Each structure stands twice: as C-alpha cells, then as structure tokens.
Amino acid sequence: MKLDEMREKSIDELKSAIVDWKKDLFNYKLQLSTHKLENTALISKTKKLIAQAKTVIKQKEVNN
C-alpha cells in the first residue's frame, strides 16, 4: 500500500491494516528463525508500512 492510499483510508481501516501487518511480521520472523523465509526484505518493508500507517493516523488525529 502506498502512502497516498493510506491517506485516503479512515483511521479505523488503518488500525485494522496495522493489526494485519503485525501478524504478517510475526509470521515472517518465525519463518526467518526456521530458515524458511526466502525474501528477508519483507520484514523491513512490513515495519516501514506499520510506521507509515501510524504516522498517517497521528496526522489525521492532529488535524481533527
């Protein structure tokens, strides 16, 4: 999801997306520890998505 798409979504939608991304991140870390994760860049990309979504939520809360 791109930053522009995040800004179009509501706060509740972003919060549910963060929950999903955290679940994915947990699974990626498990796969990494068992040496089954082939694309290790997924971990950093997921962390970046979570941080961006949290930033957009904070911006929306300040504006309202």
Query: What is the gyration radius calculated from CA atoms?
Result: 13 Å
Spatial shape: elongated
Second rung of CATH, namely the architecture: Orthogonal Bundle
Instruction: Report the biggest beta sheet as strand number plus sense, adding barrel if it closes.
Output: none
Multimeric organization: single chain
Task: Look at the structure and give the CATH class.
Answer: Mainly Alpha
CATH topology: Helix Hairpins
Order of helices and strands: HHH
Give the total of beta strands. 0
Number of helices: 3
Mean pLDDT: 96
Can you describe this structure?
There is one protein chain. The chain is an all-alpha fold and 64 residues long. It has a single domain (3-59), classed as Helix Hairpins (Orthogonal Bundle), CATH 1.10.287. It has three helices and no strands. The protein has helices at 3-8, 11-33, 41-63. Helix 2 (11-33) packs antiparallel against helix 3. The chain is elongated, with a radius of gyration of 13 Å.
Short précis:
With 64 residues, the protein is mainly alpha-helical. It is 81% helix and 0% strand.
SSE map:
Elements (H helix, E strand, L loop, with lengths): L2 H6 L2 H23 L7 H23 L1
Top keywords for this entry?
mainly alpha, 64 residues, elongated
